[in-house]
Amino acid sequence: MEKIGIVVAMEEEKNAVQKLMKDIELEECYELDFYKGKIQGKKCVLVQSGVGKVNAARTTQILIDKYKVNRVINVGAAASINPMLNIGDVLIGKYVVQHDFDITAFGHSKGYITGVGNNVRCDSDFLYKVEEKLEEEKKFSKKDNDEKKKKDYNVKIGIVATGDVFCSEVDMRDEIRGTFNADAVDMECGAIGQVCYLDNIPFIVIRGISDTPDGNNAGTFDKNLELASKRCSEVLNDILQDEF
């Protein structure tokens, strides 16, 4: 039976996912708390890594080595750098990049990582099923007149750029958007994706939009972190209803 590792960075994100889980068992390893249980009948191991690429990469490798997960899902908040993504929307990663990885002095493009490439693509089989599901929901919503059944937020597929910096400056936002055509920025998923790529483990990222870099978005992030976490967990729960 497949075992899914779920990595979050912050407590609010962990709490939102934990509410979905049943038959929870807590186990401590390397001073991290691992929550073993089930979501939609599927075996899952949930862990809060802490913020940043090193914490995320370390935690992902422990999940793979000790808990023998054969799929990893990263769930959490992110900042929108695409004007079409609003606070409360959810972005499912098509691929992830590390915007702060720079060996351009050796003739490589920004974000290029030796042995990995310019980006890490998320699980293509999963994305195909998600795209099908989103298309079905669009068709259903057009036919359905019951507004209560419709989501009050959008779920989109796009590019997530990761760096060890909380992006708050407009110039940085615009540079990342222009260089990578990215839709959102975070501080973990690029590193998680890199570990999964090197270990040949399918990887998925689900990010709820909490803010947008505007010079004053730290407060916006704090205000909307729980909302973004809740929306992510809703999409995760919906996804895990299906076989993949």
The count of helical stretches stands at: 6
**What sequence of helices (H) and strands (E) makes up the elements?**
EHEEEHEEEHEHEHEH
How many strands in all? 10
Spans of at least 5 consecutive residues with low confidence: none
Question: What is the helix content?
Answer: 25-40%
Determine the CATH topology: Rossmann fold
CATH architecture descriptor text? 3-Layer(aba) Sandwich
Share of β-strand residues: 25-35%
Count of all domains = 1
| Rg for CA atoms | 17 Å
Straight-line N-to-C gap: 12 Å
In the CATH hierarchy, what is the superfamily?
Nucleoside phosphorylase domain
Secondary-structure-derived class: alpha/beta
Question: Could you give the order of strands across the largest sheet?
Answer: 5-9-8-6-10
Shape: globular
State the name of the first-level CATH class.
Alpha Beta
Question: Main beta sheet, described?
Answer: 5 strands, mixed, barrel
Quaternary structure annotation: single chain
